[in-house]
From TrEMBL:
Domain Phosphoribosyltransferase: 22-188
The organism of origin for this protein: Nocardia aurea
Protein name listed in UniProt: Erythromycin esterase family protein
Length: 676
């Protein structure tokens, strides 16, 4: 059975240029390095720089195969087939019939392209003839495929020379093209399969056209006998890594990494992994006790987190940490209502009580997210009921616009507003925010004791305004809705910095720890998503705070996770599959170390390895093992994404405070006596 290897199913720009794409492909073809029969053929012109990197890495000879696209008479850029050496033609019969192209038209197009084909053959090779293909393992390389017509013509051309095996390797191609080619060759290696597929060039930052002279120079540059022996990349990573028991780096590493940073973003590669939460909590305790951090800002809804904030600061009616977390009712409740967060909130409450007794700054717990549209409305109204009943009536009237949607269902509101099935309440949300902001500004000097309540009310009004926009946008462009959410989180963080800033100018700046998923705390510019102009909280913080911020990511190879099968579904304890081949997680696993930290801010060979694009796993609140490649992997350059990465090779599911029957059932080993 022919093999088709696909390393990713997600779109986005990922390769800097053709040479980097070639080095990535070479890594996927390493098993051919010691095969003396291997010969690499680059399709001219764009495939030759890619093929040169592959040939050099495999210590294999390089040659080129010239294939010319046959363009439609009315649109030469639209391929109806391809022509290869020896007069071999591959035609797309469906396109030819659909465009009513005659046999004579095809002959005329083929004659023109044949002349160009032989011109290039002479220009590239000079007096040298093509290399012998009989009995060889031929790796056919191009810079990408669209319809695959050129590659099919190339395969047809070289098959006549009776090679031992034919392998097709490309950086990017549609899934359908990869599958079609896989039926006719021995192996297909597609580094990425963008979906939807736009163009080959969309997978490159630099897709400058390759010239005839560049092809000639590359073909005359040796690829055999000069290759640097491959380094053991896993051993290189291991040499740079530092043991981090339970995911907590040694104190001296934290001191050097954090320094005087004002913002520290700590991620997680899933929303349901106990070890990520525990290590993040331990690092945060160290930051609070040793670096004077006075806030934890989480990827959580503002009103729910603010209830916990009141508890940890010694206010509000809740008497235990578990009670203080009961505001987290919305799916996925386990993300914050779990045993690790409960224990951290209890510790923070005790820490603040000690701080208060010594008249020292206390540390708060805040939410950055915007899903709480209806709950935030109620918080605004409750505040105004206490301080200005007439303003509360106006707020009720404005927010009454949302009453046609029952419950706290922002998605239902967004769907209705986006598709004309209900009113848009954008104007009312903005009017209420503006009135409240202006009123609170006027109150600042008159009632300083009310400063926290005023800030809470204003952030809730901002949340209503941004959530209204977000829910309408989520039924349109995915990138736009993502960016609205991460901008909201960044703006909320900025507001927290300003709110928590000490009154005295000479006092230390407010310092905040951010808890969020890797996909938010990492820099989007180092990922596939950045090519579509997708932003992240981590990117926005880096751009604003520069060296005053640090970001730490987490990864795991295998284990279990608490997640749902679909949005709104019950929490389940799922097994996490071992990481995919060529992924960052597999590389971390191959080091042989089980718990370590790798700093990305120290130059060296390990960091250069981590600067290469690799698949990276991201599990949110939903985990779909059956479609893991499509659902949970994207390409990223970890060294540019984070300042440090903590790897825990095997991890376990976090325990919800109210585990469902399904979650409990999933924790029982299969060997458990069924009769008990």
């Amino acid at each position: 059975m022919n093999q088709v290897r696909v390393e990713s199913d997600t779109p986005r720009t990922i390769f800097r240029d053709r040479h980097e794409a070639g080095r990535v492909l070479a890594g996927l073809l390493e098993h051919y390095r010691d095969d003396p029969d291997v010969l690499v053929l680059g399709l001219a012109r764009g495939g030759v720089p890619v093929a040169w990197e592959v040939a050099a890495a495999l210590d294999a000879p390089l040659d080129t195969l010239i294939v010319r696209k046959l363009g439609a008479p009315s649109n030469p850029e639209f391929a109806i087939g391809a022509l290869a050496m020896g007069g071999r033609i591959v035609l797309n019969d469906d396109m030819i019939r659909g465009l009513h192209i005659t046999a004579e038209q095809i002959r005329r197009i083929a004659r023109v392209e044949s002349e160009e084909l032989y011109r290039r053959e002479a220009a590239y090779r000079g007096d040298r003839g093509p290399l012998e293909l009989a009995g060889r393992t031929v790796i056919l390389v191009d810079d990408g495929l669209a319809t695959g017509a050129s590659m099919l013509a190339a395969v047809d051309a070289i098959r006549a020379d009776q090679p031992k095996r034919i392998i097709v390797a490309v950086p990017a191609a549609p899934e359908s093209t990869c599958r079609e080619l896989g039926a006719g060759v021995d192996e297909v290696v597609c580094a990425t399969m963008p979906s939807p597929f736009g163009s080959v060039g969309a997978s490159f930052w630099d897709f400058t056209q390759v010239t005839d002279e560049q092809v000639r120079v590359l073909l005359s540059t040796r690829t055999t006998g000069t290759a640097v022996p491959p380094i053991d990349i896993a051993a290189t990573i291991a040499a740079a890594a530092v043991e981090a028991p339970s995911g907590v780096p040694p104190t001296h590493v934290l001191e050097e990494l954090i320094g005087d940073a004002q913002i520290v973003l700590i991620g997680e590669s899933s929303h349901g992994t106990a070890e990520f939460y525990a290590a993040r909590a331990a690092i945060t305790r160290w930051l609070i006790e040793n670096k004077g951090f006075t806030a934890v800002a989480a990827e959580a809804d503002w009103p729910d987190a603010y209830r916990a904030n009141r508890y940890v600061r010694g206010h509000g009616p809740d008497t235990t940490a578990e009670e203080a977390l009961r505001g987290f009712e919305r799916f996925p409740s386990w993300m914050w209502r779990n045993t690790v967060v409960r224990d951290f909130i209890a510790w923070l409450h005790d820490h603040n009580r000690e701080q208060r007794s010594r008249d020292l700054p206390r540390t708060g717990f805040y939410g950055l997210d915007l899903y709480s549209m209806h709950r935030s409305m109620q918080q605004v109204i409750d505040y105004l009921d206490r301080v200005d009943p007439r303003a509360a009536l106006r707020a009720r009237d404005r927010y009454g616009c949302f009453d046609h949607i029952s419950g706290d269902d922002g998605q239902a509101y967004g769907f209705a507003a986006a598709f004309g099935a209900g009113r848009s309440c954008e104007t009312q949300a903005i009017e209420q925010l503006v009135e409240l902001r202006d009123d609170l500004l006027a109150r600042e000097d008159s009632d300083p004791a009310d400063v926290d309540d005023r800030f809470d009310a204003l952030r809730n009004a901002w949340t209503v305004r941004d959530a209204e926009t977000y829910y309408r946008a989520m039924f349109g462009d995915r990138v736009s809705s993502w960016n609205l959410r991460d901008r909201h989180m960044a703006e909320t963080l900025d507001a927290l910095v300003e709110h928590l800033q000490p009154d005295e100018p000479g006092d230390r700046q407010a310092r905040i720890v951010v808890w969020a998923h890797n996909s938010h705390v990492g820099d989007a510019r180092a990922t596939e998503m950045g090519a579509e102009d997708q932003l992240t909280l981590g990117q926005l913080v880096r751009q604003k705070y520069g060296a005053a911020c640090r970001s730490i990511g987490f990864s795991t190879y295998a284990g279990s996770v608490t997640a749902a099968e679909e949005w709104g579904g019950p929490a389940k304890r799922e097994g996490v599959r071992p990481a995919l081949r060529s992924s960052m997680e597999e590389l971390m696993h191959d080091t042989g170390m089980t718990e370590f930290v790798l700093r990305m801010d120290i130059p060296g060979d390990a960091i250069e390895i981590m600067r290469q694009p690799r698949l990276q796993r991201a599990i949110g609140v939903i985990y779909r093992p059956g479609t893991e490649r499509q659902s949970h992997y994207y390409h990223a350059r970890p060294a540019d994404q984070f300042d440090a990465l903590i790897h825990l090779d095997v991890t376990t599911a976090i325990t919800p405070l109210e585990p469902t029957g399904q979650w409990i059932h999933d924790t029982i080993p299969e060997t458990y006596p069924s009769g008990l």
